[in-house]
Every structure is written in structure tokens, then in C-alpha cells.
Fold this sequence. Notes:
Blueprint: E1 22-24, E2 36-41, E3 46-51, H1 56-66, E4 78-81, E5 84-90, E6 93-98, E7 114-118, E8 123-129, H2 133-138, E9 155-160, E10 163-169, E11 174-179, H3 183-194, E12 199-201
Parallel strand pairs: 2-12
Antiparallel strand pairs: 1-12, 2-8, 3-6, 3-7, 4-5, 5-6, 8-11, 9-10, 10-11
Amino acid sequence: MAASKQIQVERQSALHGHYEAGLFGLQADREQSAAIVLQEVLNLSLWQVAAWPDTYKSVATKISKAYGSKKPLGPNKSASNAGGSVLRVEPLKFWVIGDTPANKGKDAIAVDEAVWVDQSHSRTQLRITGEHAVTLLNQFLPLDLRESQFAVGDVASSALHHVGVTLWRSQEGYELFIPRGFALALWEVLIEGAAQYGYEVI
């Protein structure tokens, strides 16, 4: 019997053919930094971890510890270390961004404690930075993004043009997770909004 061949499928961005790097808008003709920088983060690794009410405490403790948090994550909070990040996106659900934890030894999450679902292909991740990043986001998201209210590590679920999105403020910037099917439409909305300030796509 012939050995089966493993087929590796190359993931294609939802923005393929519509993603052009460069300077655009008012900033395009100026010799200074762009007011907004937009970047698609490719090859997203996203796992959703869903616990049950009676297992939540154990799961929250283990998964928070795996990413460097000394205590279980509170609502709309995240933790990060060299292995990746964990975001508490719903009362009983977490997102793991990056490598999944080793899940071994005394801190292993048992199969009857939580369900792990790979959702890497379900979202497009955009990173938004620059002087006017918050101004751009607040044109579309009804969130208080002031430093005192939305600090590094904070997470929020919201809607952009009636599409449910998740916003996470990482160390690198504002990470916007968009359902893949709406990614191109919302990308066009964002770059149109950014044009008045001048923006760079990297």
C-alpha cells in the first residue's frame, strides 16, 4: 500500500490583489512619517478555547499562567510571553494567538475542561499604528480608546460598519481581527478613512 502524501495548502490573504504597499493620501508627497501605518499580519495562528461554567476557573488559571499572568485574566484582558498571547474575549472563551501552550504536566487542560478550535483561517488581522491610529479607529468604533481607558493588553468586542470585530491593544499597536469574508470591504473603508491624514501600508 502506497504511503499517503501530506498536502500542504498555502493560505491566501483575503486582501490578495488589493493590498498595495506604499505611502498614500495627504502624506504621499511629504518627507515625513505617515500619520497612520496599516499592516496585515500574515499567517495568523488563532485558537479559540471554550470552557464550561464548572470548568472555567481551572481553565482560566492554567491558560493565564501559560502566558505569564500570575492570576486568571479578567474580562477584556490579555497576557503575553515569548510563546504568544492569550485574550479573554468572552466570559467563557479565550483566544490564543501564536503558539499553543505545551499543555502538559500539572497545568495541562484536560479534554473535558475545554474545547480547542483552530480559527486561524476565519479572521484577517490588521495592525494599526501611528500618530492618528486612535483617531482613525474612533471614526468607526464606538469605543473609548484613551490611554486611561484602553491600555496595552486591553481587548474589546465591537462593530465596524455593522460587522463584529475584535480589537486588541498589543505592545506593537492596535490589532484588529475581522471576519475573513468582510476583510476586503472593511480594508477599503479603513484606507478611505486614513487618506485624509496620510497613511502608509507596509
